[in-house]
Each structure stands twice: as C-alpha cells, then as structure tokens.
Amino acid sequence: MTAPPTLRHVPVMLAEVLEKIAPRAGGVYLDATFGGGGYAGAILEAAPCTLWAIDRDPAAIARGAALAARFPGRLHLIQGNFGNMLALLAAAGVSALDGVVLDLGVSSFQIDDPARGFSFRGDGPLDMRMGGEGPTAADLVNSMAESELIKILFELGEERHARRVARAILTARAEAPITTTGQLAAIIRAVVPGDRSGIDPATRSFQALRIQVNDELGEISRALDQAARLLAPGGRLVVVSFHSLEDRIVKRFMSAASGRDPAPSRHDPRGLTPRPRAGFRLLTLRALRPRPDETHANPRARSARLRALERLGGAADERAAS
Hints:
7-stranded mixed β-sheet; DNA polymerase, domain 1; alpha/beta; about 45% helix; Rossmann fold; single chain; about 325 residues; 2 domains
C-alpha cells in the first residue's frame, strides 16, 4: 500500500549521521533501514559511492524507485529484514562494506498512515506489521493469555500498569474482538491515568505490541552482529535509536566490540584470561543527542540517540594512533 501523499519523512540527526559515516568516493555503504530514503539520498549526494538499501516494508522499496532513478547504478534496493543483511547482501555479491546506517524503530510513513495500524492518533486496523507478514497486533491482543500480555507490556513497553491494561483487554475481548487502533487506545486510556509528561496513556502499550509483532529487539541484535562482520577495515557502523530498550542493546554491543565492557570480578576465573584485542573503536564515548533546533522543528527527534563504531585495521589503526 502506498502512503498518502501528505506524509513526509524527516531523517533524524542527518548531519551527525553523515559526519560519522563519512562517505568517500568509491565506497560501498548500506542503509539497512531505508524507510523514506533520507539517509540514503544524503550519502549518495555526499560522495560518488555505491549504496545498498534494505527495508522489510514493500511500500518503502516501491518509494525508493524514484531515488534510484536519480542515482542510476549507484542505489540498489533489497526487500527483507535488516537482521538478515548478511544473507541478503551475499546473494547480491556483496561481502564487505565501508559503512552501515541503522535508523531503528518505526518510520514516519508507517506511523502516519492509519491503514498501517501503528498509531492511536487515527483509527485504523490494528495491524502494526512492518513487512505485512506474520501475526498482527490484533491477533496478539485477542489470543494471548493474560500473563503473556502482562510480560510484553511490562518488558517491551515499560508500562507500570501492565496488569491493569492486560485485564482490561481480556474483559473487552470477551465482549467482542478488538480490531482497530481506536478500540485498543480507548480501552487503555480508560484504565491508565495520564501523567505530567503529556504522553498519551496508550503510548507504552502500543510500543510494546509493535516491538513484539516485528521482533524488533531480536532484529536489532542480529543486525548489529552482522553489520560488524560486514565492515571492512576503517568501516563504520552508525545507529540511531529512539527508546531505552533499543539504545541499551546498541550500547552494550558497541562497548563489548570496542573492549570497553566491564572486566570480570577478581573472583571470576575469566579474569585470569587475557582479554583479546578489540577489533573496533568507539566514535561516540557517549550517545549523541539531537540539537535543540532539530527537536524544535521535529519533535519526534527528541528521544533520538546516536552511537557509532569503527572497525580497526589499516587506515583505521593509523587514525586511532594519531
């Protein structure tokens, strides 16, 4: 399904992403979460390079045709999950990259289209699938046991009122199936009190269901590991995340890859074994945050965190030593 023409994609922290990915002539890059093509277009404009782009959403791939026409022979689009990038790129004959960009979470095109069922701001089918395959959010809320719902809402949505929400869902679905975003949002708002933040009471529950439907945290873990394996010496991985669950996974992965994860306790026998030399270095000791002018112009950028990593070896080693 094509997104309505009024929808607009604004790439978050674009200047910071470009600075960290540092596109160069002849380089080969991957935008693993193509979405609206904001990062992809900027990378292609920054240097005469080749860029591969992955997205699980067929609508995103269809939108990308116009951008591919602007950069003939330089932009290559692949439909699939970014957690499967190693196999997807291998099938295209690509085994090494000079940079990978990951923009985590849901895209503006998806969240702004009521027909996709991601948002409670407009009523639509309770779907939330990024790629159109597998169970929908409606399937989950109408079939899961109360204990499973509580676990998902608490762990993936960090919803303090998870038990109350799960109980309300079970009560409502006993009367009739929950099939729309408006229905679900009303059920949640009736039992979750508002707070001073002004965040809609349905926000955390919708986040939890979206993450579960799309296995987002599993995808992130698989993607980070595969991206690191694909990077050539000097290659860079740049990740923009939007909530603490995502950022925590990224932070731990990059800390471990760069040899900055905590040392074992002196009572732990593993502490006696010399630690292997790190194959990467952090380009961001702390997560970068969007500038105030960006958050003012684009409120969705407020929660963004950017972290970046570089594979050592060759030119990278020389830069690290300088």
